[in-house]
């Protein structure tokens, strides 16, 4: 019998069921899910609104290529459009966040015909060769070098150096409004504003990577809306599919004809079942006022995380329900002790515990998370 290749740590837990903010293993143990498959399940496991939409679609067409129109895709575009700021009128359908990043880089290259992508320290944009090229951490990159050679890294959140790094050779500037994998590091408004001004001056395409931050998690539909700075393109994924694989690039109307037929494509992009889930997710985001609920729940969780009483805890970082607890020590040693106490969490960077729970976490969940974190950080 074949085996699944191992490139993730095995925690020795077999998950068999999920419902909204909770998961259960095969021993009947319940977990508060603050991992959410790296942020994918922000709208909850088996959310009934999304489940019903998927059930309806699986009785109809499943896979329809982008050469043909289909009602599922039309419903998605109609619902998703209501979540977009007015200047954004074109959506490139993809399957994953990394694929969306690759597409955004291709758009910038095609539009500008320039070689250089500008990215930043502690960035994470994906594990495909192009997205990996604009990812900072050497641990992800080293085994696969040489990567795309025309990448220049600047210092994240150092607005004074932006003018030096965004030159006339830059096809694009790509940045996360809040760095996820790199440590849950929010950008400053001055930094993003400097990037916008530098891109305007140089003619580079400004790309915000909202794969993890986007779709309500930070307390706004898109994190950049909290800064009052708009990109030329932004990527989204993870939570947008309600749990099914999706990635999109969103751009201004004039970008809609950048590719000639054959220059870009994706076999599964716009899959009808995924489109049904993403349409329902988009409708739910508005119907439930999900960003406001994430903001309120995030404030409560941030307060709980800041009150551990442990000398190991330095500070809470992030926005909404994208939170990190920065520690004085390496964070990975606490993931399994938290699991034993019924909380699934992640790490970010070397010394940050990351919490990405679904928007519907309740006060009792927040209290339980805070208590579990305080217990594992006791010295």
Percentage of residues in helical conformation: 25-40%
Largest sheet: 7 strands, mixed
Oligomerization state: single chain
Q: Report how far apart the termini are.
A: 46 Å
Beta content comes to: 15-25%
Q: Number of folding domains?
A: 2
Widest sheet, order of strands? 4-12-11-10-7-5-6
Secondary structure tally: strands: 17
Q: How would you describe the shape?
A: globular
Q: What is the element string, with H for helices and E for strands?
A: EEEHHHEHEHHEHEEEHEEEHHEEHEEEH
Name the CATH superfamily assignment of the largest domain.
Type I PLP-dependent aspartate aminotransferase-like (Major domain)
Q: Please tally the helical runs, counting DSSP H or I stretches of 4 or more residues.
A: 12
Mean pLDDT: 97
Proper CATH architecture of the largest domain: 3-Layer(aba) Sandwich
CA-atom Rg in angstroms:
20 Å
The level-1 CATH class of the largest domain: Alpha Beta
Indicate the CATH topology of the largest domain.
Aspartate Aminotransferase, domain 2
Helix and strand composition category: alpha/beta
List segments where confidence is low: pLDDT < 50 over at least 5 consecutive residues. Answer: none
């Amino acid at each position: 019998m074949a085996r699944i290749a191992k490139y993730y740590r095995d925690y020795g837990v077999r998950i068999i069921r999920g419902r909204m903010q909770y998961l259960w293993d095969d021993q009947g143990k319940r977990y508060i899910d603050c991992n959410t498959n790296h942020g994918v399940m922000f709208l909850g496991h088996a959310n009934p609104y999304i489940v019903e939409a998927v059930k309806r679609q699986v009785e109809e067409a499943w896979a329809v290529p982008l050469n043909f129109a289909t009602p599922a895709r039309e419903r998605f575009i109609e619902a998703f459009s209501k979540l977009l700021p007015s200047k954004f009128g074109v959506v490139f359908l993809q399957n994953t966040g990394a694929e969306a990043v690759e597409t955004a880089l291709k758009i910038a290259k095609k539009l500008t015909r320039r070689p250089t992508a500008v990215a930043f320290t502690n960035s994470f944009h994906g594990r495909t060769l192009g997205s990996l090229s604009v990812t900072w951490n050497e641990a992800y990159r080293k085994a696969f070098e040489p990567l795309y050679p025309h990448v220049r890294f600047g210092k994240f959140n150092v607005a004074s150096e932006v003018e030096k790094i965004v030159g006339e050779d830059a096809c694009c500037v790509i940045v996360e409004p809040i760095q996820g994998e790199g440590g849950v590091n929010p950008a400053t408004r001055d930094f993003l504003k400097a990037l916008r001004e530098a891109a305007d001056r140089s003619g580079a395409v400004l790309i915000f990577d909202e794969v993890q931050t986007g779709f309500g998690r930070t307390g706004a539909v898109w994190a950049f809306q909290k800064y009052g700075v708009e990109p030329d393109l932004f990527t989204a994924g993870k939570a947008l599919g309600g749990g099914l694989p999706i990635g999109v690039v969103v751009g201004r109307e004039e970008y809609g004809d950048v590719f000639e037929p054959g220059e870009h494509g994706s076999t599964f992009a716009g899959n009808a079942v995924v489109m049904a889930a993403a349409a329902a997710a988009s409708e739910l985001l508005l119907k439930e006022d999900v960003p406001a609920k994430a903001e309120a729940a995030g404030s409560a969780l941030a307060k709980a995380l800041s009150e551990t009483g442990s000398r190991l805890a330095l500070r809470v970082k992030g926005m909404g329900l994208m939170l990190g607890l920065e520690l004085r020590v390496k964070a990975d040693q606490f993931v399994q002790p938290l699991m034993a106490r019924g909380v699934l969490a992640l790490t970010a960077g070397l010394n940050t515990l990351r919490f990405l729970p679904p928007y519907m976490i309740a006060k009792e969940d927040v209290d339980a998370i805070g208590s579990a974190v305080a217990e594992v950080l006791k010295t």
